[in-house]
Amino acid sequence: MGDTFGSLFRISTFGESHGGGVGVVVEGCPAGVPLVESDIQPELDRRRPGQSAITSQRKEPDTCRILSGTFEGRTLGSAIAILVMNEDARPEAYEEMKDLYRPSHADYTYEAKYGIRNWQGGGRASARETIGRVAAGAIARKLLRAYFRTETVAWVSQIHQIVAVVNEEEVTAQAVEANIVRCPDPLAARRMIEHIEEVRKAGDSVGGIIVVRVRGCPPGLGEPVFDKLTADLAKGVMSLPAARGVEFGLGFESVLLTGSEHNDPFELRDGRVRTKSNRSGGIQGGISNGENIRLRIAFKPTATIAHPQETVSRDGQSVTFRGRGRHDPCVLPRAVPMVEAMVNLVLIDHALRAIPKRDLDQLTPHLQPLPR
Length: 372
Hints:
Blueprint: E1 4-5, E2 10-15, E3 21-27, H1 37-47, E4 64-68, E5 70-71, E6 74-75, E7 80-85, H2 107-114, H3 130-148, E8 151-159, E9 162-163, H4 173-176, H5 186-201, E10 208-215, H6 229-238, E11 243-248, H7 259-262, E12 266-269, E13 272-275, E14 283-284, E15 287-288, E16 293-299, E17 309-312, E18 318-321, H8 332-354, H9 357-363
Antiparallel strand pairs: 1-2, 2-3, 3-7, 4-7, 5-6, 8-9, 8-10, 10-16, 11-16, 12-13, 14-15, 17-18
C-alpha cells in the first residue's frame, strides 16, 4: 500500500478512521530545527472535524504528540513520529454497510485489490488519514518560511455554482480564516455557507474548487522530465480524498490563447530575472521560476449522502440503502489545510534536493521558533 510520499523529506502515514489512532513518521528533517507540539497543533485544528456547523460533527480534539525525533525542543535529524489518538470513533454506525459496496467509495476497489477491507468508516480511504499529512506539512511550512520566507495560502474559490471574486495577489491567511467556509470573499462565503447548510439538510453534498498561491518560492525547484515540480505537486494534491482535477497557471483556459498571448516575457527587475506576466503559474519546464506558484484543485461532492441509492452486496444481491455516519456535506473547508500541507511537502522535498547539505548545516543552528 502506498503509505510513503517524498524523496529526501519523506513521510509515511499510518492508522485507520476508527482504529486506535492515526499519525505520521517524518524522515529527512534537518537536525537542530525548533519543533514542539504547538508548532503542529494549529494546522490540525484547522483540519479537525466538528469545527463548525458545515463540517462533520465527529468530536475529535486531534491533539498531537511528538513521540520521537526531538530533544529539548529541537529536531535530532532522526525520524520524527507524531501520533493523534482517535477519541470519538463509532464503528457501529457502519455495521449495516459492512457487506455493501457504497457508491463512489473505495469499498469495492479495496476489496478487489486486497481481498479484505476495513468497513469502519472506510479505514485508510477515510480523510482522517490526512491528519498525518497535515502534521508533517506543518513542519514543511516551518522550514520553508525559515529558509526562504515562502508562504503557501489556499482558499475555497468555488462551491457548486457559487464563485468567489477576489484579487488573488492580496488574499491573506487571515482573510481565509475569517469565516467557516474559508473563502476570502465575504459575500460569496455567506452564500456558500447557506448553500452547504441547505444541501446538508436535504441529505446531499456538493463539491468545489480550491485555489493555491505560493509566494516567495525560490527559482530552481523541480527536476527535469519525470520529477517536474508540476508533476510532483499534481501527484501530491491528487492523492487527497475527493480530489478530481488540478491545473497550473491558466490551466485549461490556456487552450483559448495563442502562444503570443500565453507566453511570459522575461525582464530584469529588482536586480534579477523576472517575468512580466505569470500565465505559467510560476513553473516553467517543470522548474520554479521565482514567481508566485498558482494551482487550482477540483473536489467532487462527498460520496456519503442520505438519499436512497442502488448498489449491490458482497454476495451480488441488489440493495437500496441510505448513507449513515458523520460526514462533511462539503469537503472543501477542511481540505484547505490538507492542500496547503501537500504543496508544502512537495516544495520542501525539492528544496532539500536543491540546497547543498553544507549550506543547510550553516543555516539551521540560527533558526528561531516562528509563529504561523
